[in-house]
Design goal:
Two copies of one chain form a homodimer. With 201 residues, chain A is an all-alpha fold. Helix content of chain A is 73%, strand content 0%. The first copy, chain A, has nine helices and no strands. In chain A, helix 1 packs across helix 2, helix 1 packs across helix 6 and helix 4 packs antiparallel against helix 5. Chain A is elongated, with a radius of gyration of 19 Å. In chain A, 39% of the residues are buried. At the A-B interface, helix 1, helix 6, helix 7, helix 8 and helix 9 of A face helix 1, helix 6, helix 7, helix 8 and helix 9 of B. Chain B binds a DNA duplex (30 and 30 nucleotides) through helix 1, helix 2 and helix 3.
Chain lengths: 201, 201
DNA sequence: GACATTAACGAACGGTCGTTCTATTGTTCG
DNA sequence: CGAACAATAGAACGACCGTTCGTTAATGTC
């Protein structure tokens, strides 16, 4: 790895940590440079614009998410076990105990959900992909028969996502210690009574 | 109402709209003044600091939330009907169709969940109060017998909140049109199979 | 209608923002 | 080793930030 790529990675690590605390907009090149003991222009040169920096940070965050959540979960056998693994790693990641800043994607989603542009586009696509991966894992649990064949997979994914979002919110803003347990409890209810398609009653 | 209070309200209206789009930190006094055709100092004088402005905006948002969600729902008879009314108004408010910016509280929660200070304190307390109101309404549905006596009220509230958060996320970032329906579907499942305390199995 | 009070303005402050240059250092490789 | 190049520093830019201040215009009161 060349010197340039090396420092670029170093910058991204610090930038990611800062963005978790201040958001992607709150992240400034000046304070980033100071935190790295580099010059502003030295940092800047690696990205060419703040927007590119923001996207690079999101990319870095996505890679770490894949490393800490998706890939470990793929080690679990397809089906229910894998879904459980996803939830476990996901919860651990999004409220990583002690670490400041929480999940960057959740913060960025709220920050950019109304600001059109490349950053929003990238985030949107990234989040869409993650949802697709999640749905795929859920679909497999239907195939293995661990979830009923009439399961509404998208609804299942929506509600799983909802539990993680609420966990993040309660834990971080309201300092509710049992937020993770609440999410797990909700998930068990989701398993016991999965949403089904087209229920005529 | 004195002249001062009058313009203050006018300012807050515009500030709230702007904060919904750019966030509470992204809201600047300069652009706010421009949008009001006022001088920066004229706007500033009403609040004394940006922090005070942010809190005032949150207060204004809370009042509107009470007007559009809580108070209308209190008109419904206590019990299940009221919970349904809360959800309906809540969903309508948080993703107010067409209007840009979405729910300020959700954005502010992500923005300030890691920034200690008066703004975070205020938001925290406000969100705590709202959750309490929600739990109270759910508790009443237990009292009326529309929800089973062993219902875990806090878990019910947590999951209801989760559905609204996910709805907001999917609708705004992922542009999922059916997000509101997903939230409603989730709510029906919540009613059909409410979470209960201490289930020994 | 004169007067005290409040509201709004306009100019300026020091600071930081993202960005652009030029110069100098450090690395890479024939 | 030395030439070609990549990486970083440093100074400066115009723009905008939140904030202060002194002054003017509008309002409310006796």
């Amino acid at each position: 790895m060349s010197k340039g790529e090396q420092t670029r990675q170093h910058i991204l690590g610090t930038a990611l940590a800062m963005a978790r605390e201040c958001g992607l907009e709150g992240l400034t090149i000046g304070s980033l440079a100071e935190g790295l003991s580099m010059s502003k222009s030295g940092v800047f040169a690696h990205f060419g614009s703040k927007e590119e920096l923001q996207i690079a940070v999101l990319k870095e965050a996505a890679e770490r998410f894949a490393d800490q959540v998706l890939r470990p979960a793929l080690a679990a056998p397809r089906g229910l076990a894998r879904i459980r693994a996803i939830l476990d790693h996901w919860l651990a990641y999004s409220v990583a105990s002690g670490l400041p800043g929480g999940c960057l994607f959740i913060a960025a989603a709220a920050e950019f959900d109304d600001k059109p542009g490349p950053v929003r586009d990238f985030l949107q696509q990234q989040q869409g992909q993650w949802r697709q991966s999640l749905l795929k894992a859920i679909g497999m649990a239907v195939e293995t028969g661990e979830l009923p064949p009439e399961t509404d997979v998208e609804q299942f994914g929506f509600e799983m996502f909802a539990l993680v979002l609420a966990c993040h919110h309660d834990q971080r803003l309201l300092s509710q210690r049992n937020a993770v347990d609440r999410a797990r409890t909700g998930f068990e209810r989701l398993l016991d009574h999965p949403p089904v398609h087209l229920s005529r009653h």
